[in-house]
Design brief:
The protein is mainly α. It has 2 domains: about 45 residues; about 40 residues, no CATH class. Helices cover about 50% and strands about 10% of the residues. A two-stranded antiparallel sheet has the order 1-2. The longest helix has 30 residues. The two termini are about 55 Å apart. The model has no long low-confidence stretch (mean pLDDT about 80).
């Protein structure tokens, strides 16, 4: 397990944290572990809530597969060599129907 050292805490802050730990029947160290763990979980919960809000905002809006955009951008570069095979990539276009890619031809 990792260790963290926090320097230059105000005496009043430490006193309040000790009081809080005592009321809960914890050591100061245990109380600080719980506070830090809760803060880390809250950050992830906030992130997930923001991500859900963004997904909801664009729900029903057709989205382009990012792989198609990357390939299209690479295809614009003359003489681009594919990373997986030693051949020149020739420009191609995606065949789509209703915004959904059907494949590369």
């Amino acid at each position: 397990m990792a260790q963290v050292i926090v320097r230059h805490l105000e005496d009043e802050t430490v006193r309040r944290l000790k009081d809080r730990a005592r009321r809960k029947g914890h050591s100061l160290e245990q109380e600080l572990r719980e506070i830090l763990a809760a803060a880390a979980r809250q950050d992830m919960a906030e992130f997930k809530a923001r991500a859900a809000a963004i997904r909801a905002r664009y729900e029903g809006t057709p989205q382009t597969d990012s792989m198609l955009l990357l390939r299209e951008d690479r295809d614009r570069q003359p003489g681009h060599r594919c990373q997986r095979r030693d051949q020149v990539v020739r420009p191609r276009s995606a065949v789509t129907r209703g915004g959904a890619a059907l494949g590369w031809w």
